[in-house]
Design goal:
Shape: elongated
Radius of gyration: 13 Å
Mean pLDDT: 90
Number of helices: 3
Oligomer: single chain
Helix content: over 70%
Low-confidence stretches: none
Largest sheet: none
Strand content: under 5%
Distance between the termini: 36 Å
Length: 62
């Protein structure tokens, strides 16, 4: 049984949000350049959510 796209998007959305918060904390603790790598993981997660939702506002310039 495969999980639905909505369930996958839900999990990725919350996971990416948690990673972004960790990235903010890393910035506050001056953990450079690790904070940038953490943010990159979070942004990639949100890019995936945009693709799953077919939401051009999250993954397209146009």
């Amino acid at each position: 049984m495969q999980p639905s796209r909505e369930r996958v998007a839900f999990a990725v959305k919350w996971g990416a949000s948690a990673v972004q918060i960790i990235g903010y904390a890393a910035t506050g603790f001056w953990w450079t350049p690790w904070n940038l790598y953490i943010f990159l993981v979070g942004v990639t997660g949100w890019f995936a959510v945009g693709a799953l939702w077919n939401d051009r506002a999250l993954w397209s310039k146009c």
